[in-house]
Design brief:
21 strands; three-stranded antiparallel sheet; single chain
Length: 338
């Protein structure tokens, strides 16, 4: 009779009373490593070995003459965007760093979809609110809440830096550091300057948001004003000018400091951004707000802090600091908005 099928499925049609019946092959089985064509496809022991590993590491044990060898998985690689499990952990294209775009709340990463990296598209800027985040995606935090007038006490400031006690050193380095640390604990504020008003134990200071103190070396400041070298002068009109120019050269509006002075070769200063404005005036004008800030008796210090504060307020700002530049009777001060 006719033969049909192959391997274990091979059958022969029967011949009964001179009539050949239909030839029906046997049913294929599952291929195993036994030197037999179990699935009846004409090939012996193909795909018969045990599988091991996952993804790109997947391997099948070799089957030679019906004997199965040990299965050894491949070595994991580095995951890339290609729709393959390169690191052999059972997941595809996971944990890819990709490229980033945007800042703040707009920060986004490229995505890998179907093995293809999709272009990075930054999020849309929102409205800045007071929450320690950069909603409007300009790389500044809470900058629309720049200046805040805060009335405190020297006895409170003295808990941050002991030398800030209001007796003779109200405008000195101890109080600058104390005000910075005091403001750093207030919501949406990170640093500050002042005092801009002072009476007895009461001190009025300005706390700022959007910027933090930054380390700058005396050598860098000395390049802006040679007199601000950390030796002859560590704070004063020349260092005011040096800090202001350093900040302006970095694309910001102005700056003040030192808010902290370490034992090393530099200081911490604060740069302010777009909600500040440098304005020109004179000591004659400032002395109308505080008669002691006349360019003769005082060119910089507590009385001039007060005069600049009051002058900036008269210009529609919340306060100001400086002088950031001075020549004779002419001065430039930096006013800040609320």
């Amino acid at each position: 009779g006719t033969i049909c099928g192959m391997g274990p499925c091979e059958r022969r049609a029967e011949c009964v009373d001179g009539v050949e019946s239909e030839c029906v092959p046997g049913l294929p089985g599952v291929e195993v490593c036994n030197n037999i064509d179990d699935d009846c496809d004409g090939t012996t022991d193909e795909d018969a070995g045990v599988q091991c590993g996952a993804g790109a590491c997947a391997r099948r044990a070799a089957c030679v003459d019906g004997v199965e060898a040990e299965c050894v998985p491949g070595l994991p690689g580095v995951e890339v965007c290609n729709d393959v499990d390169d690191d052999c952990d059972g997941m595809t294209d996971e944990g890819l760093a990709g490229t980033t775009c945007g800042v703040g709340a707009c920060l986004r990463h490229t995505e890998c979809v179907g093995g293809v990296e999709v272009d990075c598209v930054p999020g849309l800027p929102g409205v800045e609110i007071c929450n320690e985040a950069d909603e409007d995606c300009d790389d500044l935090v809470d900058e629309d809440f720049l200046g805040e007038v805060v009335i405190t006490a020297y006895s409170t400031l003295g808990t941050f830096v002991g030398g800030c006690n209001g007796s003779g050193a109200a405008a000195g380095q101890a109080c600058r550091s104390a005000i910075k640390r005091f403001c750093d604990g207030r919501r949406c504020r990170h640093t500050g300057f002042g005092p801009v008003e002072s009476a007895g134990d009461t001190a009025e200071v300005i706390c700022l948001a959007g910027r933090v103190d930054e380390w700058v070396t005396w050598a860098t400041l000395g390049a802006q004003n040679v007199a601000c070298d950390g030796v002859g002068e560590r704070d004063g009109p020349n260092c005011n000018a040096a800090i202001h120019r350093w900040c302006a050269n970095r694309g910001l509006v102005s700056g003040f400091g030192p808010v902290e002075v370490g034992p090393g070769a530099g200081m911490f200063a604060v740069c302010v951004g777009p909600r500040a404005e440098v304005r020109g005036t004179t000591y004659a004008v400032l002395s109308a707000h505080n008669r002691f800030c006349d360019g003769n008796g005082q060119r910089i210090g507590l009385e001039c802090n007060n005069a600049i504060h009051l002058w900036c307020r008269a210009q529609g700002f919340v306060s100001g600091f400086g002088p950031v530049e001075s020549s004779g009777g002419d001065v430039a001060v930096t006013c800040v908005r609320d």
